[in-house]
């Protein structure tokens, strides 16, 4: 980005008249957006019960006039690793509620946390969000079998979003992005207690006067820390020995319990 | 106070888990049962994914049965040969159960199947126990001595082929019902996360006519090894044993069991059985309630293999 700016400057210097005309015609104000994470790794420890993640960012080359009018808006998204998901629907059979129909979706973000400067409807037209697939309701969720009935797919897609919101994995914070100065902003996103581990992607979208200008992204690794990670790895990579260990621990606990609380 | 369960991948309250373990331990000490049939439903009520509740329950059963088993091993009050035959059947049943478990999980019917099995089994066993203990209480009030079945009585089981001699039990019976009983309990162990003592003990006494002095020891012998096998196979195929969860439950459980055993000595046999029957019926009713009452949401999400996300 800096290199691009220098090149542009050189061009303007070499061809003043042409360059100025070009800049005015096409790039009156080539705004840019940058974000930085205070950490690129978040550890989940034994007492993890959700957390707030703060992302700082800056709008470069902001037009002072638009800035004064407060017509710059920022939407920050933290997207969890994509996974396939099966959505099932219960129906009443013989008086019992039983899973009957199901729909499989590919590449569903496991979590999706959004922070915005204002309410979505005050920032841009709905069609802009659709184009950018921005916001939990506009995320494109791809069914594994596209030949299924569109009505059914729509129903299960809606249910998937609703379930994700209900478990706190898809969340929205209106006003979660605040401008600290003319150019600097801060976004507060929430990490749910059940936030999935893996590589998350933070994306920031800049809007000017309701028009999308620029997007940037950064990566964030969420991982289980020390002890939890060790256990999880052990359970997955050495599943058999993990089972043997679990059995040994149970026998040891039973035996110690007998010694400590001897009753016969 | 939260504790992160690394396999279930969620936070739970450690005090609630300890209390749960202690309460079940208390009851299991009082009634002399493993408590797996209480732990697994309680974990499911506490929103632990059923697949993890079952595998972790099987692991917890080992701890609660082990100290009791040690006492029986020491006293020699078990039929090693009978226990081994039950165990052989148990391993076959448990292996079959694990396959059924994975299959049901993939088609999204595991939770239903677990609940149904619990409702049917606990409902039946609870009702039978209730009838039996109420009759016993009534008879003892009338002053009449409880009518015991003659031990020499033979039933259809004794007419089956492939007979085998079990010296410690003074039995000469076909191995078919022994292996079948073991296999049935093994199957339940891997699908329900129970030890199966609540079925094994009456079956040994009433069906096979095993002398009561070796019944508990033999049953515990089979339960420990089948639960151990089930835990290892669940861990290997499904990675659903949450050792942190299991350990917290075990600690609460072994402590609670000691107090339960003391409390149990103060109550009479029939009363104790009537209480246990009530408890078993209550758990069955609670699970049935969830099956028949419209859930808050009709939709649920799972991973592609049916596992939690």
Automatic annotation (TrEMBL), chain B:
Has UniProt tagged this entry with the keyword Transmembrane helix? yes
Q: Which Gene Ontology cellular component terms are annotated?
A: plasma membrane
Q: Name one Pfam family in it.
A: TauE
Q: How does it sit in the membrane?
A: Multi-pass membrane protein
Q: Which UniProt keywords apply?
A: Cell membrane, Membrane, Transmembrane, Transmembrane helix
Q: Which domain of life is it from?
A: Bacteria
The portions of this protein that span the membrane are: 12-45, 51-73, 85-107, 113-131, 168-185, 215-237, 243-260, 272-289
Localized where? Cell membrane; Membrane
Q: Respond yes or no to whether keyword Glycoprotein is given for this record.
A: no
The stretch of residues making up the signal peptide is none
Q: Could you say which protein family the record assigns here?
A: Belongs to the 4-toluene sulfonate uptake permease (TSUP) (TC 2.A.102) family.
Protein name listed in UniProt: Probable membrane transporter protein
């Amino acid at each position: 980005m800096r290199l691009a700016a220098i090149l542009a400057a050189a061009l303007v210097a070499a061809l003043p008249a042409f360059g100025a005309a070009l800049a005015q015609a096409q790039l009156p104000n080539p705004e840019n957006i940058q974000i930085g994470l205070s950490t690129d790794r978040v550890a989940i420890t034994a007492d993890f019960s959700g957390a707030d993640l703060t992302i700082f960012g800056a709008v470069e080359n902001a037009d002072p006039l638009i800035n004064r009018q407060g017509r710059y808006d920022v939407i920050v998204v933290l997207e969890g690793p994509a996974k396939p998901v099966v959505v099932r629907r219960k129906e009443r059979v013989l008086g019992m509620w039983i899973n009957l129909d199901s729909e499989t979706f590919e590449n569903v973000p496991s979590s999706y946390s959004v922070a915005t400067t204002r309410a979505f409807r005050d920032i841009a037209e709905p069609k802009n969000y659709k184009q950018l697939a921005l916001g939990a309701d506009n995320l494109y969720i791809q069914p594994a079998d596209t030949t299924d009935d569109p009505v059914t797919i729509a129903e299960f897609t809606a249910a998937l979003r609703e379930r994700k919101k209900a478990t706190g994995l898809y969340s929205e914070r209106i006003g979660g992005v605040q401008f600290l100065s003319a150019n600097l902003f801060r976004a507060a996103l929430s990490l749910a207690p059940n936030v999935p581990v893996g590589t998350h992607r933070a994306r920031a979208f800049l809007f000017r006067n309701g028009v999308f200008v620029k997007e940037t992204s950064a990566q964030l690794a969420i991982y289980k820390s020390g002890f939890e990670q060790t256990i999880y790895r052990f359970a997955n990579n050495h599943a058999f020995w993990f089972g043997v260990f679990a059995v040994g621990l149970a026998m040891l606990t039973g035996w110690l319990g007998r010694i400590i609380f001897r009753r016969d | 106070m939260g504790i992160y369960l690394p396999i279930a991948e969620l936070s739970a309250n450690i005090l609630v888990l300890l209390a749960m373990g202690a309460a079940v331990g208390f009851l299991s000490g009082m009634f002399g049962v493993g408590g797996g049939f209480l732990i697994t439903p309680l974990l499911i009520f506490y929103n632990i994914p059923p697949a993890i509740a079952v595998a972790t329950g099987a692991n917890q059963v080992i701890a609660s049965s082990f100290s009791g088993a040690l006492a029986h091993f020491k006293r020699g009050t078990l039929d090693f040969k009978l226990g081994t035959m039950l165990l052989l059947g148990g391993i076959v049943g448990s292996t079959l159960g694990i396959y059924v478990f994975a299959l049901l999980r993939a088609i999204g019917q595991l939770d239903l199947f677990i609940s149904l099995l619990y409702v049917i089994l606990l409902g039946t066993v609870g009702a039978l126990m209730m009838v039996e203990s109420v009759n016993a209480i009534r008879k003892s009030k009338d002053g009449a001595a409880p009518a015991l079945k003659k031990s020499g009585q033979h039933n259809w089981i004794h007419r089956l082929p492939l007979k085998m001699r079990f010296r410690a039990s003074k039995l000469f019976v076909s191995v078919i019902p022994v292996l079948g009983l073991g296999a049935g309990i093994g199957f339940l162990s891997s699908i329900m996360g129970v030890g199966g003592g609540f079925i094994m003990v009456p079956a040994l006494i009433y069906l096979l006519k095993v002398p009561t002095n070796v019944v508990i020891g033999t049953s515990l012998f089979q339960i420990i090894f089948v639960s151990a096998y089930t835990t290892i196979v669940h861990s290997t195929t499904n990675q659903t044993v949450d050792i942190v969860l299991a350990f917290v439950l075990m600690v609460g459980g072994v402590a609670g069991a000691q107090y339960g055993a003391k409390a149990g000595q103060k109550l009479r046999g029939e009363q104790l059985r009537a209480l246990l029957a009530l408890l078993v019926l209550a758990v069955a009713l609670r699970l049935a309630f969830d099956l028949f009452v419209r859930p808050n949401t009709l939709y649920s999400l799972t991973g592609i293999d049916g596992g939690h996300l």
